[in-house]
Amino acid sequence: MVGAFFPGLNMSAQTSPAEKGLNPGLLCQESYTCSGTDEAVFECDECCSLQCLRCEEELHRQERLRNHERIRLKAGHVPYCDPCKGPSGHSPGVKQRAVVRCQTCKINLCLECQKRTHSGGNRRRHPVTVYHVAKVQELLEEEGMDEDTKRKKMTEKVVSFLLVDENEEVQVTNEEDFIRKLDCKPDQHLKVVSIFGNTGDGKSHTLNHTFFYGREVFKTSPAQESCTVGVWAAYDPVHKVAVIDTEGLLGATVNLSQRTRLLLKVLAISDLVIYRTHADRLHNDLFKFLGDASEAYLKHFTKELKATTARCGLDVPLSTLGPAVIIFHETVHTQLLGSDHPSEVPEKLIQDRFRKLGRFPEAFSSIHYKGTRTYNPPTDFSGLRRALEQQLENNTTRSPRHPGVIFKALKALSDRFSGEIPDDQMAHSSFFPDEYFTCSVLCLSCGAGCKNSMNHGKEGVPHEANSRCRYSHQYDNRVFTCKACYERGNEVSVVPKTAASTDSPWMGLAKYAWSGYVIECPNCGVVYRSRQYWFGNQDPVDTVVRTEIVHVWPGTDGFLKDNNNAAQRLLDGMNFMAQSVSELSLGPTKAVTSWLTDQIAPAYWRPNSQILVWCGRMPCIPGTARSACAALPCPKLAL
Predict the structure, then answer these.
(1) Residue 221: which of 199, 243, 242 has the closest Cα?
(2) pLDDT tens across 258-299, in order?
(3) Per-residue pLDDT tens digits for 216-260
(4) Number of alpha carbons in the 13 Å side-chain half-sphere of residue 331
(5) CB atoms inside a 10 Å sphere around CB 268
(6) CB count in 10 Å sphere of residue 39
(7) Is 330 helix (H, G, I), strand (E, B) or coil?
(8) What is the pTM of this model?
(9) Is the bond leading into 378 cis (omega within 30 degrees of zero)?
């Protein structure tokens, strides 16, 4: 490692354990009272040594050493080179930090002095302690930096990655992959900041200058086409946040519905949302987008986020309140919102605009306005940065959480709300219509849509509709329930059958031919026969059953299908009779076959009808025709 820092350093000499790490536990170099075993605390520039507490105190009690200048050591301290200081302890030129300390000569040496004085002879074999100057120099440089320079240096290696593509497919395989791409610690608690706005308004540019000090972490382009497709993410190590860049609204895309639904998934996992607009006035699409997003969040996402919290065993509630919103408004020719009404805060004017448009952003924990007027480029993002830092420090409604929790929430929403959206059923009056998030299956009888969320069948939840269905003769979508049980508080479904459960097949078929089909309740028994009387038989709906019209969903079977169809019952009866005749004729057929075999068998064979015991040696079965084993000498078969 040292050779990597200092290629010309002579490493043939032995090194002490002090070289391991970043100079941990520098030892006293005086050995005046401690024998060199105590940790160094001071450096005396005139004594040219590191000193422990005891040595420093004893040495500088002497009158001639009392006025020496000493400094207290800091973490990673590296002393100066002794030969470079000059005989009086003061440097004749530029001081150099030491690279090694010779344990025999008890002096600190820079690289040049080490080459000059210890490259040959016996001194080459002197044991040395190596100082990691490169790392210390880096720390010293950071100590001399101002706060902005330090933050800029922390973000030098940040890169963005594709989190979700334009087809709503998550491009991260698991939690470990998500943490690895973010390049953050697994136990790091962080928040999520996302940005929305129309295409071309400078969303990526805003994130680059607000979080990464102008570095192009998120791609920008002067071309007409949108340069951000899908959802991209990066980690800001300064503010400890996951920053998410999204595709712009009103852009040219072939999957408009899926793209819009994807935006709401990102909004649902965010703690802070920036709506970026570059216009002289706030347009209605901003308020419609936020208002519709709030309604869809409360209607569809709150329930799913709560289910994700319970299903994944997360100890952080994901759906207490929606994210906070900052509207970042940049103007050129017009004044900022509220400038002409100093007595009214901009947030109140924004709430008035929402009410006028009939939109109510109840899902968001707060909405703030931050504007900037750009007379001459570049845009000033300092006000936005201060507003973001203030909101990120507020943990009353949204607290930081592990990266794994963020990934699980995004994965759960992606799995739940996915699939194609039929354009012919879509309502375009809203940014986020219900068709984006609800099941697209329609009832075959009345055409009503399922009210449950997408992919609910994976959890065993059946289709449901808000409206009642109508009867269709094609599907015969009636369900019978026993009226007597219903009056007692139970709802028991019944269906017409050919025979009662207590009748044998033959007796049931005979009763069916005479009395017609039967309706049997598990609790009440047989409650109806279609031809119980010669005349005057009433309809079961008027007497013993209740009728309910139910929805017919694709893939479901008929409700009373084939149960009271005369042709089907006749075919069932014929099949039963044919099976019964076949079973009854099996015995005579075997008897005739056995008799014919005995007629052509040798005289010494015992007749088949007399073989009732199996010898156990041959694969023959008693009472059946013999195979080749009968021709063998068998004591039980031979006469």
Answers:
(1) 199
(2) 788 888 889 989 999 999 999 999 999 899 999 988 888 888
(3) 999 988 877 777 888 999 999 999 999 999 988 877 666 777 788
(4) 14
(5) 25
(6) 14
(7) strand
(8) 0.58
(9) yes
